């Protein structure tokens, strides 16, 4: 039954806040009083009463409390006549006597179910986190229930809250969540009706439906309205975009269906291109920067790096404009840093490491300035760790292993401590998994195989914990195959071939499921190619036919990604890697023509990739492997001179840059030396490999070719 007392209320809501949060209270007051309820909801009967057309008036005047000893008659009357209580929550409001008293008074009226929270700063339940008590954003009256006498008890309660902190709901969705609670309707229902009100059949969506493509008709409205109405219509159009590119995208990413956002992203980008950042309000700039960043992320996942870069640069232009207007505002600097990171990340994906370093250094420097603004802000302190890890990754790509490992060890120690104090934060486990992976790769490269296996196991464990906590989240599902392949490699190289084969099969099975969900996701498609590559490598020990089939699937997957994004360095690398493996498999079955054809294709691809990889040492081993195989093919054909030339080139690559050669180069160097019957030269390297626990997949001298006729001079 509807609440019969609703009709007697004077105010739709009472806003309770600390005066240090006055700016947020002002924004919320305006947002609620100017909101027009979608016409399709007006008059609907709910358990709380009939839904009104407007949400005004809203009460928020508490100036008289400055000298009062209690809430005062006027405030108590306003609370009694307010249909809802909205609390602006922050560390400042937690320590405000008046905020706590207002919540207590409202609960004592029997209206605890009509209290809603807007989190603007701090952390919920921080009082339960040792060392972080000062970050608590819920006052005591919000955290605990009252007894029959209206006194606080020790029984906890969970406040209903919207969250405008960075990375949370955002202003638009937070506003809609509060309004949904006030109207006693579901947030999804309100958001969908809010979208319908401002478009001509713009969105027709259910949980399995496609995103509509009629956004153009909504965006075009601003071109036909009178000048004094233009800003309002622009805001309405962007509210729709905010829902579609924000809340809707979040739902679709969770189930792995970002392919449904392509049409909306394209229309939104075209619309944003017509706007000049300097002419926009701060609210419009902030919302557009957030939406453009989301568009860039989707386009990057779909393999469209150039389009992603444009979206990120547009987001940067808006964030930079906001930062220039408010240089002392930490949130503006935070948003600018995110834009700098994404531009650097795209450069890194394209192999443009000099450009990547420039932008990622800017991001790290912005993070340092941000952290200095507020040492108690945990989210801002984490940005510094992100910035350092990014630069460590660039060091790793350029063979600066010692510098990289120092950075990663320092970051990993931070994450281990943070995970202990924040055991339920999935993002911390995710970030720790990344750093553990880097440490494992450095240990592998240095011959510390047992340590590498331990690090990669930790990486898999972190991501497995996230999968278990959020099994429907496609992000954790997608990360698991990549993590498992790192462990597969070290298992294979330490004699655990059975475990490695099982791991590669599990990774491939999960990647196949993901790519069926979203065939346009190029990152997932490339990951599937990597999984197939490892299946082929390991299957070649027991079933050449299975290995051939898996290698062809790896080559097709990488080729499709490369065709969609020719400048993606990772796709170039794995395409060449698949073709080198196909060449090796052909050579092992004495199909010399087939081997030559595959190796020639790989050679052409590697030469193209070399021009786009600025000093990326990670691509150096594959050309050496290709030359070793070319030498083997030439030797079996009886072309001694060509074989010697190819092996000499492979040896030159493997010895270049370090003396003695790095550990990760030794297995291939040993094979190159043994191919030339230089057993004495290979002996010290073999001893080092044996000492580390390295176990070759094939016996060192196993070869199907007639190399005995090729002797060293």
What does this structure look like?
Helices cover 63% and strands 4% of the residues. With 713 residues, it is mainly alpha-helical. Among the domains are: 158 residues, Rossmann fold (3-Layer(aba) Sandwich); 118 residues, Alpha Horseshoe (Serine Threonine Protein Phosphatase 5, Tetratricopeptide repeat), CATH 1.25.40.10; 90 residues. The strands form 3 sheets. A 5-stranded parallel β-sheet has the order 4-1-5-6-9, sandwiched between helices. It has a two-stranded antiparallel sheet with strand order 2-3. A two-stranded antiparallel sheet has the order 7-8. Helix 19 packs antiparallel against helix 20 and helix 20 runs antiparallel to helix 21. It is elongated and about 100 Å long. The N terminus and C terminus are likely disordered.
């Amino acid at each position: 039954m509807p609440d019969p007392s609703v009709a007697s209320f004077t105010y739709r809501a009472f806003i309770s806040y600390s005066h240090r949060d006055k700016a947020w209270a002002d924004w919320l007051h305006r947002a609620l009083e100017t909101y027009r309820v979608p016409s399709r909801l007006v008059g609907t009967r709910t358990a709380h009463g009939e839904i009104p057309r407007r949400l005004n008036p809203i009460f928020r005047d508490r100036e008289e409390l400055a000298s009062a000893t209690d809430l005062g008659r006027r405030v108590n009357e306003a609370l009694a006549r307010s249909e809802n209580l909205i609390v602006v929550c922050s560390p400042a409001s937690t320590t405000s006597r008046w905020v706590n008293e207002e919540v207590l008074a409202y609960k004592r009226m029997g209206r605890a179910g009509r209290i809603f929270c807007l989190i603007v700063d701090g952390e919920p339940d921080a009082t339960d986190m040792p060392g972080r008590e000062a970050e608590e954003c819920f006052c005591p009256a919000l955290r605990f229930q009252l007894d029959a006498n209206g006194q606080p008890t020790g029984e906890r309660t969970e406040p209903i809250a919207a969250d405008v902190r960075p990375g949370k709901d955002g202003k638009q969705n937070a506003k809609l969540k509060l309004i949904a609670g006030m109207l006693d309707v579901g947030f999804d229902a309100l958001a969908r009706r809010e979208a319908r009100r401002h478009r001509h059949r713009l969105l027709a969506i259910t949980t399995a439906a496609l995103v509509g493509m009629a956004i153009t008709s909504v965006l075009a409205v601003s071109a036909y309205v009178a000048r004094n109405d233009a800003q309002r219509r622009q805001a309405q159009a962007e509210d729709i975009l905010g829902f579609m590119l924000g809340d809707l995208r979040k739902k679709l990413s969770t189930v792995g269906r970002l392919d449904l956002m392509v049409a909306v992203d394209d229309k939104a980008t075209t619309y944003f291109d017509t706007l000049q950042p300097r002419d926009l309000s701060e609210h419009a700039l902030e919302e557009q920067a957030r939406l453009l960043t989301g568009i860039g992320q989707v386009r990057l996942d779909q393999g469209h790096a150039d389009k992603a870069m444009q979206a990120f640069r547009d987001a940067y232009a808006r964030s930079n404009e906001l930062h220039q207007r408010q240089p002392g505002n930490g949130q503006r600097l935070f948003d600018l840093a995110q834009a700098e990171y994404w531009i650097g990340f795209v450069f890194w994906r394209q192999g443009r490491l000099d450009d990547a370093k420039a932008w990622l250094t800017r991001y790290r420097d912005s993070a340092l300035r941000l952290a200095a603004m507020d040492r108690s802000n945990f989210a801002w302190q984490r940005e510094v760790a992100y910035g350092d890890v990014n630069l460590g990754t660039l060091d790793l790509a350029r063979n600066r292993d010692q510098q990289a490992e120092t950075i990663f060890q320092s970051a990993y120690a931070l994450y281990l401590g943070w995970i202990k104090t924040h055991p339920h934060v999935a993002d911390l486990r995710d970030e720790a998994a990344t750093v553990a992976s880097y440490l494992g790769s450095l240990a592998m490269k240095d011959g510390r195989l047992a340590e590498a296996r331990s690090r990669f196991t930790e990486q898999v464990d972190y991501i497995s914990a996230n999968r278990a906590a959020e099994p429907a989240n496609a992000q954790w599902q997608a990360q698991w195959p990549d993590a498992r392949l790192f462990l597969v490699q070290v298992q294979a190289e330490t004699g655990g071939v059975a475990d490695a084969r099982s791991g590669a099969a599990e990774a491939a099975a999960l990647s196949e499921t993901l790519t069926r969900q979203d065939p346009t996701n190029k990152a997932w498609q490339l990951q599937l190619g990597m999984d197939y590559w490892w299946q082929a490598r390991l299957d070649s020990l027991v079933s050449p036919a299975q290995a051939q089939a898996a290698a062809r699937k790896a080559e097709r997957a990488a080729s499709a990604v490369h065709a969609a994004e020719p400048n993606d360095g990772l796709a170039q690398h794995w395409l060449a890697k698949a073709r080198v493996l196909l060449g090796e498999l052909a050579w092992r079955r004495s199909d010399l023509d087939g081997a030559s054809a595959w190796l020639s294709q790989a050679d052409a691809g590697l030469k193209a990739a070399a021009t786009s990889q600025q000093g990326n040492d990670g691509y150096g081993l594959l050309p050496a492997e290709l030359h070793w195989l070319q030498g083997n093919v030439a030797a079996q054909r009886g072309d001694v001179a060509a074989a010697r030339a190819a092996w000499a080139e492979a040896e030159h690559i493997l010895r270049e840059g370090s003396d003695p050669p790095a550990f990760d180069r030794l297995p291939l160097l040993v094979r190159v030396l043994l191919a030339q019957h230089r057993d004495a030269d290979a002996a010290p390297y073999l001893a080092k490999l044996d000492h580390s626990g390295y176990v070759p997949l094939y016996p060192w001298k196993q070869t199907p070719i007639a190399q005995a006729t090729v002797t060293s001079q």
